[in-house]
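Q: Could you write out the predicted structure for this multi-component system? I'm mainly interested in how the pieces pack against one another.
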Amino acid sequence: MINVIGVTKRFKNVLAVDAVSLSITKGESVALLGANGAGKSTLIKCILGLLDYEGIIEIQSLNIKENPKFSKSLIGYVPQEPLFYDMKTVDILRFFGSIRNADNNRINYLLDMVGLNDHKNKLSSELSGGMRQRLSFAIGLLSDPLILILDEPTSNLDAAGREDFLNLVKHSKECGKTVLFSSHRLDEVYFLADRVLFMKSGRVVLDAKPENLASLLGIKVKINLRIPQGSISNAISILDKEGIKSVNRNGSGLYLEVDEAQRMIPFEKLMQSGVPIDDFSIHESSMETVVNHIESNEY
Amino acid sequence: MRKEAGESLKNRWFMIYTICFSALALLVLMFSTMGGDIAGFSGFGRTAASIINLVLLFIPLIAVITGGLSISQERENGTLPYLLSHPIDKNEVFLGKFLGLLITIWFSILLGFGIAGAGVAIMGNQGEISGYLITVLLSVMLAAIFLSIGFLVSVYSRKASKAIGISVFLWLFFIILGDLGIMGTTVVMDLGIKQVFILALLNPAEVFKIASVLVLSPRFDILGPVGVYAVRTFGQQGVFYLLFSVMILWALIPLSYAYLAFTRFRKEEI
């Protein structure tokens, strides 16, 4: 569906994208991760035909430089910060609908779908951040495109707005759309992505399944277990036998770090041995941890 | 184009501008029909002659600022790259914007002239209606010229504030300083009549002024020695056609340059 072949983009002396090659198949949902300045947004802008670049980008086997309008008609784009003309919501959809050949039925369907029907006569400046992002998503879907490209779409949303928005994207993914999105949040990656591409200094340095990300990067899950004082020594020896070494006493319990794939083992083994667990908490690795790990290691 | 025209027509500045222009045109009409025949003008002719001065101040200012903001503002807001992420190319964006804004400005001008013209007709004044209509034609041409100049400014401006600054300077240069410049250059360089006429052609506002007076006055000596020279050299009709052609060039050259610059810009300069 999307083929990027040896794409390089320079801004004067800065190499923003360095000979990137990747392929995204139909119906796949791919997350683009990386620190600020890693080249994610630049690569997205190249795929959208908004920047000149060296190399080849194909959408449905067609070179986008040779078929820019057709390629863009296959893509719905949701930017990080939606920027609209100060028009009514419905007029904005009509305007972009006229570019994307979407009729009024489609516009009304999308207004319903993104929950903006009651706000269709509001000016775009009167919409909340979440509503503006949903409007942007509706614009992206006007021509029912095969591909959705989202550039950090939830970075300006609150928790509720983010959840609403992610559900909309998930629904589109389930309807068969190919999704490419950049994000700064690991929970979004786990929720939406089938595949993760990690960019560092303009290059794709890691291509993995989300579930393998933590183990591939050697990132540990941190677990706090509250165990009665009398059982702590027993618990340490049980975990030690299972090869879980990084166990520390932590006030009223234990603090341990295990591989992502091993996260259930301490619970299983302690329960099988009759060690009571009064409470527990699990600290997932954050995107910051992942980014820091990749930035500080060679890939 | 429809979006640009529709948005502009709803824009409060355009509405204020249209109302002001219409109101001033009406005032001019009232004053110009109170007196008798002045300098050979009567009815429509006198109204049109008075409106010329209005036109020369208002239309270029509005047109050049509107053009100046057209692309620079969208570039600064970030709406231009977003628009271009849709299946639309830069040719369509440029031409759609230009035509949309041109139609809006023309609408304002025609409304102002229409009100004034209707007023003259209702008051029963008769005169050179053809002269009045040609003045309207020259006015819409003047708008096209300054809109084109504004677009050229806009294409090269990253910030809307910079575009406004340059646009206002150009307006000042062509409208206010233009006459002084020609006079000063003539005196300092001791230019002949032919050179002064050529110098006048370099200022679109001057070309508009000469063409309008030529249309409204049967006495071309009102234009002074330069007018006499021009009419004797090219004939009255010939001068008008020459001036009108120069106006077309003044509209086309900045517009074409702006179009080429915008469509051939490297994409990161959008």
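A: Regarding packing and overall arrangement: The first helix of chain B runs from residue 2 to 10.
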